[in-house]
Design goal:
Shape: globular
Number of strands: 11
Largest sheet: 5 strands, mixed
Order of helices and strands: HEHEEHEEHHEHHEHEHHEHHEHE
Number of helices: 13
């Protein structure tokens, strides 16, 4: 990865001064920011061209890409680090699996080249209408989305890649250095790119390598919520290297004062994931999203259902 690391200073030089704040705190703005979770993933297979195009048609401000790394060092859009859930890899490469700690068969993306992954059907698992959809690279996602909506990538499994001596931050920085994404033109007055991760080390590294790019620290577990969201002082500490927090929506419901603490620290709040199949005590997903936006005063949110987003 040494060649990639040599590109990082150049990336920083290119990006310095380009980005603006992604979303103003709700106390200062009435913005309601819609992030399409894995694209319009309630209606099309996640992270496919069909899902991304539909998300834009349904009015997404940003489209999310989860990013994994292939054997030959290419960023591809996949929530999972393995291929078996959303492709036909078990049929195409039946013997290329490894056994995990529970003796389950796994086909890791990092064990396949991009050419091999492009042979897989990434749509049929969702429905016959989407047969033949392919897994997209980051560059292909940029080509499909860039300029039409913002990009909201998550660097997946950085700790797994570190164990393989792969620096996913450096891989991503090198991808930006190729200049496929226009980082100089705001999307609806906001930064065209926001990066996210559940991994503290990764977000801290991003703050150093790409300091002008807004960064979301995702928070999903009770332990992470206790570490970062249990007091105003801890939220202020988080603001020293992140610009946004992305807690699971249940965490926000259980501790709504964290939104006030975040805004006081200069952070925005983007909870996840709002979907019609999981609305808790709310009558529908639109009502649930409206509660978070209007009552809890979050700034943005991730949803599988962009068409249900309450603009007003």
């Amino acid at each position: 990865m040494s060649d990639l690391m040599r590109l990082v200073p150049a990336v920083v030089m290119v990006l310095t001064g380009v980005f603006i704040t992604s979303v103003a705190p709700s106390s200062q703005s009435t913005s309601r920011i819609l992030v399409a979770h894995r694209g319009a993933s309630a209606y099309a297979p996640e992270h496919t061209l069909a899902a991304y195009r539909l998300a834009i048609e349904q009015g997404a401000d940003y489209v999310e890409q989860d990013l994994a790394v292939t054997k030959d060092g290419v960023l591809v859009c996949s929530h999972d680090l393995t291929l078996e859930r959303t492709t036909d890899v078990e049929t195409v490469f039946p013997d290329r699996f490894v056994l995990d700690a529970k003796d389950q068969k796994r086909w890791f993306i990092a064990d396949f080249t991009l050419e091999e992954i492009k042979r897989l059907d990434a749509g049929s698992w969702f429905g016959a209408t989407f047969a033949g959809e392919r897994m997209l690279t980051w560059d292909e996602a940029v080509a499909a989305i860039g300029g039409r909506a913002g990009m909201y990538p998550e660097l997946k499994g950085p700790e797994v890649y570190r164990a393989r001596n792969i620096d996913i931050v450096a891989v991503f920085a090198a991808a930006l250095a190729r200049g496929k994404l226009d980082v100089s033109t705001p999307i609806r007055g906001r930064a065209p790119l926001v990066i996210q991760s559940f991994d503290e080390q990764t977000v801290r590294e991003l703050a150093k390598v790409l300091p002008k790019v807004p960064r979301t620290m995702l928070i999903g577990s009770e332990a992470m919520a206790e570490r970062w969201l249990s007091s105003e002082a801890r939220v202020r500490e988080l603001a020293s290297f992140a610009t946004d927090i992305g807690p699971a929506k249940q965490i926000v419901l259980g501790n709504p004062v964290m939104v006030t603490w975040a805004h006081a620290a200069g952070l925005t709040v983007t909870p996840y994931t709002f979907r019609s199949a999981d609305t808790g005590t709310f009558p529908d997903v639109t009502a649930e999203m409206r509660h978070f936006l209007d009552v809890l005063r979050v700034d943005a949110l991730f949803t599988d259902n962009p068409d249900k987003f309450p603009r007003k």
